[in-house]
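Summary for the steering committee. The consortium agreed at its last meeting that each partner would contribute one worked example illustrating the joint modelling workflow. Our contribution is presented below. We chose a case with several input lines so that the handling of multiple components could be demonstrated. No manual editing was applied between input and output; the record is shown as generated.
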Amino acid sequence: MFRTLISTAVASLVPVLACAQTLTLGLGGNVTSLDPHYHSAGPNSAFAYTIFGRLTDTDENSRLEPGLAESWSLVDPLTWEFKLRKGVKFHNGEDFTAEDVVFTFERIPQVVNSPGPYTSYLRGIESTEIVDPYTLRVKTAYPVPTLPLMLNNIAILDSTTHANVTTEDFNSGKALVGTGPFKYVSGSTSEGIKLTRNDDYFGTVPDWETVDYRIITNSAARTAAFLAGDVDLIDQVASSDVARISQAADAEIVSKVGLRLMYINLDHSRTENPVFLRDNSGKPLAVNPLKDVRVRKALSLAIDRKILVDRVMDGAAIASMQYMPPGAFAYADDLVPPAADAAKAKELLAEAGYPEGFQITLHGSNDRFPNDARVLQAIGQMWTRIGVRTTVEAMPYGPFQTRASAQEFAAFLGTWGNDGEPGIGMTNTLATFDKEKGTGSINRGRYSNPAYDEALAAATSETDATKREAALRDVMHLLIEDMPILPLYIQKNTWAVRKTLSFAGRADDATMPQDVHPAKQ
Amino acid sequence: MTAWLVHRIMQSLLVVIAMTAIVFVAVNVIGDPVAILISPDANQAERDRIIVQFGLDQPLWRQYLSFVGGAVRGDFGNSFVYGMPALQVIFQRMPATLELALGTLVVSVAFGIPLGLYTGMQPNSFLSKLTLSASILGFSVPVFWLGLILIMFFSVYLGWFPAGGRGETVRVFGVGLSFLTLDGLRHLTLPVLTLAIFKISLVLRMVRAGVRDVVPQEYVKFARAKGLSKQRILFVHILKNIMIPVVTIVGLEFGSLIAFSVVTESIFAWPGMGKLIIDSINVLDRPMIVAYLMIIVFLFVAINLVVDILYTLLDPRARLTGP
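What follows is the complete predicted structure of the assembly.
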């Protein structure tokens, strides 16, 4: 009888011990494909990097770390040399060599039907040269100082295993073989994916024997699953759920400043007959006030960023006047968001010739970014206070995107998610729109400042990292002098974790099971 | 019968064609899917390449014609988001939605009809009055609120059921079915309950109204006079005669369960078709939207067909005539 009791007690412990080795994640981003080269989107990439390795990794602050490449350097301004790690094996035993990297680079442009290919990260690469199985030289057509950072996005495949692989092979799980910290076991995005630990991983072997990777896109459902104990960790916690979760005895909120800047974009494409701008009697204005830097600075001074961050975003953001958050590459300590000053703003408006203000319509999305519609309404009120009577129009993201890209708005919500350096963001969003040069692809306001373009081009092609950082800081100063956009805040990434786990969070909002550890006792 | 069937099928084809044309135009007007899907890092050249890849640079009528050409061959186009044939993506998720819909149907009929019969036969009992009041609540309460309350109570507080997701499945003829496992049934309970409460209320009130209508009829009095047992009167004479409106409603509701289970699927993270359609609409994945709506139209047509045939079985006076 006693023996039965003991054995039952021990037997019931076993599942508990086994459970201690399993991590269940409930993530909000919809993974649309398991092919790591199919669609460049945050959720797809985060999943890919559990199974596949990359030449370079990034730490939680998006600073570069060695990955499959131990070190890299510039042989000359147009040639990068990568020294690859020796002794790394794919999950099926194949060796990792430089040939696999070349194969990967060649596969990416061949992926069919991709709505968002990874080719943009390989831009500028002209040719590759395998010096020896563990040394690879990459030649570029023009200086690409950020190539190692770009390659952080490229999952490396095996030239033998993945020859002629299709997206379908990845989605079915057959081709999910990489050099990453976890191996694919079974499942799909609908029912949850099971991963198991790769004991031969070249980096830090993960703490979890099995991982249950679940996608729960509805925010309320995600929070409910966490509170009910179905999952151990969730990401993208809605700011309204933070209070409830903080109260739970066994859970805590982890928050890290992210890399996504939200700003107000202004119309620079029209000098006369602007749209959505009227005088106080309702008649359309003849001249575009937004082309005057004093008006733009006034609009910026009217915005109380502290209130936006504390009240509207419930603390889930930090006010910002630049692209990068504190601690990141090219962050400028002296570009601090100013306190709101309605009096000075009115003065500037009067100087510019609008002592009575004018009327404007502010556009944006209402279903894409946390609190987007609320932020727009708050800004609308702040502008009205200085005499710029604002009508706010928030709409679903689809139509908003399309119309914004066609320069249909006067003032509208804009955003940029940085990677480790601000260079590409500053080029895509504010350099002069030029199809041939490939600049300004998201420059919806069509801002054009030749001095800025020149300074930015020089900064981004500077191969010495320290010099580049300083140059980018200077360009950021130049930008704020002219205030073509009104930076608002950088979003924080929020997670809810069990107290038995420790997770530092990541600036790029990727939630990967290899970064989650049991809490130190 | 054949003439009627052929007539029906021609009608539905017309509806489908009209629907596809409307969706094409509507989605085109809303916005540009490439702008939503493409990585912001991409430059204009890459953007243009993708626009050509999806055929979005062609004039709308040409896009529509190439779609029709493909549809006739059974190819409804590849989803912009998933890169796979749109039909394939939908069929992958269909078993989950069908399971939810059939489960709800079974539960609502199994509870709704007996309750309706009881409240109809014993209208003055306390239980009857209680059931009727509850049914008013049942079909007034919004589905998403009910779902969240059930999760809060049964999952978070009591921990009896999981908060979402689908349970373990068993493969039957290549299709994964979760109601065959205990874990699957646990996951199925709350979503089915959420949907079924509304349906039960509806069915029970219809049945009750039918019973109240039929019971005073002459033939029921005659059956009683003949000395037939209560069971026989209830289940053979009364039930069969009230089924026509019930069958109509259940048929329509079943169709909407399959087509529009978005809210429940979102709240319970149920991997079905409903969630797929709303996500596709948000990113303007036109091939997916069109394929999905075509399937829904066929579904409703099929259900209406079945309902009409059931009429002739239930009521010998009904004929399959007309449109």
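Residues 10-19 of chain A have pLDDT under 50 and may be disordered. The first helix of chain A runs from residue 2 to 20.
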